[in-house]
Amino acid sequence: MYRDTKGGWRTKTLFVEMCGPETREKYNPPFTLNEIDVEKRGKTYKSMYKLYMEAADEFDFVSSILGSTMHWKSLQKSKWFFGGFRGHYGVEKWREDMRARDESLAKKVLMTAAQAGDISAAKKLFDVSKKPNETKRGRFIKEEAVKEAVKKVEDKEFLQDTALRLNVVNLYDN
Fold this sequence. Notes:
This protein has 174 residues and is mainly alpha-helical. It has eight helices and five strands; from the N terminus they run ββαβββααααααα. The relative contact order is 0.06.
């Protein structure tokens, strides 16, 4: 990372994919946006995604790899880095992957404990494996019913206005 002429941080010099040949020679980017390490012209670029997934959590990653939360905050402000860009899926996806990894690790621990006879671990595995019943409806909520009724009226009015505008026969006779 380097400061540009306006005093802001330039995050693109961290990644080989975001540098042109001159910038690559001048700043020597250490990372790639790929999910695996990449070798180009005899130099190996570390996968930031891989390093992120190997860390215990995001704070561990930031402190061990970037050395400063300032750099991480600067990266997060970059729309292309946070939301994705070309082949890079973005930090949002990284966070989903880390949650999935953590769930998988927790499940492995529970399975090992359940196989060793831990009844509470077996019960937790059973509870996790049950799919929630989404058809089950709780109490009647008046506000939701009112919102639904207003939506139906608005939809009907929209359809009537559209039919009149298009010179179509009124589908809803009162």
